[in-house]
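Figure S7 source data.
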Amino acid sequence: MMSDYDWLQSECTELEQAGLLRHLRVVMSAPTGTINLGGRDVVMLGSNNYLGLSTHPKVIDAAVEATKVYGTGASGSRLISGNNTIYETLENNLAKTKGTEAALVFSSGYAANTSIIPVLAGEDDLILSDTLNHASIIDGCRLSRATKKVYRHCDVEHLMTLLSESTGFRRRLIVTDSVFSMDGDIAPLHDIYEVATNYNAMFLVDDAHGFGVLGKGGSGTVAHCGLEGKDIIQMGTLSKAIGGLGGYVAGSRALIELLINRARGFIFTTGLPPATLAAANAALNVMRSSSKLRKRLLENADTVKISLAKMGYTLLPSQTQIIPVVIGEPQHATDIAEALLIEGVFAPAIRPPAVPSGTSRLRVTLMATHTDSDIEHALCGFENVISSI
Ligand SMILES: Cc1ncc(COP(=O)(O)O)c(C=O)c1O
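Tokens for the predicted pyridoxal-5'-phosphate complex:
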């Protein structure tokens, strides 16, 4: 008998036939260089725990201590009852790290982008967005109801053309990833900032993958590009190099005050658990106090990039810890990821809609905590796979 829900299975079957069906994999260990994936030890080349801070003893101690003192949950939204004192410490620490007047923490980076953008732009406004921007930016733009124009990837000339063709809007907002999440390249923030200034546009930078990795003390890509102190709204996440969970925005006091009053993903949700806030604060302190982890991370990434290119893999020109190994068709990317798993290497296949059609890839990411032996093992797996295809 036909059911009103038959379409659910039909859609899954269609996805499977197109090589696009995704499955969850069970991880049975902490996100270190080698993990236990479904009962097997494999080298982890798919983690955003770039500095290894999620298992740093100081970070774990801070989380445990906060839980003992404050319990496991926030118990309410921040505006009503869940604004734990650690929020204040963490937000001051973030503002200091970013060199801004103030900062505000959200439940996740996704929640931050989908909340900030609709506050900055509305129906009468124009948003200019890089074609490879993260899905959370795309969704934030949709929620804003602003007119959106998409410029070619990192193409500042195209951005200028679109701006010069667009008159009659109340406000303009340019938004870009700093380090592109699936490509690892760095947006030309300096040139975009100049364009923003010339066209009286606001400039929002999503530093999810640059924070902790680039700039002095890991303060991020805006500093890396020599733009600290400029009028740029910096969004980021605590879920990648910081090793925990949460998003943030750093900017002027007025921006933060308006967000507290208007950002729906801030207002209508429960605060983060105290352990998460304390862990993030401790991780920020570790991140700022030593450049060793950052240096090791980027050295690991360089070693892997050079070796994979020598083996004959097609890499996109990443300057960071994210290494896109382009395969092409989705099923082929999945097959290669599976072959690598047999070799004991986890390098996730990324397929449309996360990347443009025809550019399915392995998204290889390094961690500062990968040992020489993890990396040797991983490279040996890649060598065996390329010689068998
Ligand atoms: C560029 C970018 N922005 C935002 C996010 C969302 O961050 P979170 O995972 O903290 O929700 C991600 C996460 O994948 C990202 O890559």
